[in-house]
Amino acid sequence: MRAHAGQPEISVDRSEDFQNAQVKLAEQVYDLVLFAKDEPETQTARMIQELQLQGERMPLLFLPGRPGHRDRAESHGDASTDASESTLIRTICGAAALGRAEQQRREVDDTFGTLYSAIEQSADMVLITDSSGIIEYVNPAFEKTTGYGREEVIGQTPRILKSGEQSLELYRDLWTRIGAGEVYRGVLVNRKKTGESFVVEKTITPVRNAAGCVTHFISNDRDISERRQLEAALFQAQKMDAIGLLAGGVAHDFNNLLLVISSYAELMQDSIGPEHRLHRNVQEILSASRRAADLTRQLLAFGRKQTQTLQILNLNTVLAEISRMLPRLIGEDVELTIAPQAD
Fold first, then answer.
1. What is the pLDDT of residues 311-336, one digit of tens each?
2. What is the CATH number of the domain that holds 213?
3. How many CB atoms lie within 10 A of CB 131?
4. Quick one: angle between helices 279-303 and 315-330, nearest 10?
5. pTM of the model
6. Residues 81 and 107 in one domain
């Protein structure tokens, strides 16, 4: 088949039988499949069924024969033949163009379907608003995290998530940047439907149309509340480590002072007899210094991260020692009564 001036060149593969056509259709996708007028209807039906089984979508063009068509064309000469051929070429080109357009539409639909599935199944929250901030879409991750159903937020604004823990300047800066077509990235504290706060790592991207105007905003939020809690726990552990080092240093110096106190108390106890009226007071100083020494040893163990040796204590003895000192510390207006068990 030849092409006329101004018409695209056409490449044609022909198959004389059904088996050969099956092989060619399995190897590549054609812009158009023509069925000749003399093709048996059973083979045509089998061909269509085979294409459906293969999942291929190729445009089909049937050329039904008309009795005596060839003889009439020959009787009118070359002009009639050229006109028929030109009409056939235009029909084929039109069908092929429609087939290519349909294929492009299917590819766009497939791409859109893939993107929609990816957004629907994303673990991050996705929220789409128009240029004025009215919510038009939220994905299931948004519903699961915030507790708001899709029907509750469509038509609302993202202010329903406002926690009040951010300053107004932050929101002004956010809208200024995305209004100018810039991408905004930041960390915000939002509020769920239950009133519980959660921290999100937010990215807002403006969407432009073909004219370059911003028509929508896509907000992609990742819940980092758990990560923030881990960071806070790590900070607390570091702070406790610093406190331990400080306590170890203080306990070491305090232990030196206690050594002086206990030494002078022992010298004083040796210089006075048991019947002296200050003997009991000196004994209290020695007992308190020993308890303080035990406390400083615990602080040193804590500061140096040493494993403490656990011991079995007689609580009655500990309470008896405390009962002699506490009344003087808590004052006369508080009555302290200790009733230890026999064992």
1. 888 888 878 777 776 777 777 888 88
2. 3.30.450.20
3. 14
4. 110
5. 0.52
6. yes
